[in-house]
Specification:
elongated, transmembrane, mainly alpha, 0% strand, single chain
């Protein structure tokens, strides 16, 4: 099954990037986004508590702040992951990623290694895996797969 062709303003690096590549190629701005979302959860809860107090105990407020911190951390990671993936797809400016990808793949080719690694899956299962994961980052906010 051919890959769906999309119009992108920047060069396509990989339509189905591996998780480790997406995380390795994250920019400092992605980490700032991640940290901002992590801090936004407890910060907003604390501000809402100051604006309209629930009169809950300090222990329950502390637990709620921890929970919103964890949720903000997870949401921030997913947001940073989506931003990094959009650069792989060519939907955002990706000049640094293109040069890094070219250097990485050139080094693998010089070493005689396959460009995208080896697999033990049959061609049918490779197709199933590709159909399940290609474009999956678009719904990461709804179904974090």
């Amino acid at each position: 099954m051919p890959l769906k062709q999309t119009v992108q303003p920047y060069p396509l690096i990989d339509a189905d990037p591996h998780f480790s590549r997406v995380v390795r190629y994250m920019r400092p701005s992605d980490y700032v986004t991640w940290a901002g979302a992590t801090a936004a959860g407890p910060g907003l809860l604390w501000a809402f508590e100051k604006a309209d107090p629930t009169r809950s105990t300090k222990a329950s407020l502390r637990s709620a702040l921890r929970l919103t911190g964890w949720l903000g951390f997870c949401a921030g990671f997913m947001l940073a992951y989506q931003r990094s993936t959009a650069r792989f797809w060519g939907w955002r400016e990706n000049a640094a990623e293109v040069s890094k990808d070219q250097a990485e793949l050139s080094a693998r080719a010089r070493a005689g290694q396959p460009l995208y690694g080896e697999t033990e899956l049959s061609p049918y299962l490779q197709g199933v895996a590709a159909r399940n994961s290609t474009w999956s980052q678009l719904k990461l906010h709804a179904f974090p797969w």
